[in-house]
Design a protein that fits this description.
single chain; alpha+beta; six-stranded mixed beta sheet; 3 helices; 6 strands
Length: 92
């Protein structure tokens, strides 16, 4: 296990919680993405200098600020993407 992919959630920003409700994502889906990600993306920095790293799960993806552990956004993981990532994990 690569330690840089371990995340301790400190806070879920209100926008992140709004995304859950608005986008029909379950809390369990987000927890699964954080505990057992199919993939952890590269850190991206937005135009305001805020970093985030996507943790892609079977049902949900959670973008987490790696500096402070805040969940900054969530969205549903597409079925095709999840299937592709699960297949790639089987080959490892």
């Amino acid at each position: 296990m690569r330690l840089e992919n371990v995340v301790a959630i400190a806070y879920c920003a209100p926008f992140g919680m709004w995304n859950l409700k608005e986008r029909g994502i379950s809390v369990d889906g987000v927890v699964d993405a954080l505990k057992k990600p199919l993939s952890v993306g590269k850190i991206k920095v937005d135009s305001q200098g805020r970093p985030s790293r996507p943790h892609i799960g079977e049902k949900a993806t959670a973008a987490v600020n790696p500096d402070n552990g805040n969940i900054v956004s969530t969205w549903p993981t597409g079925a095709k993407r999840a299937a592709k990532l699960k297949e790639a994990l089987k080959k490892q």
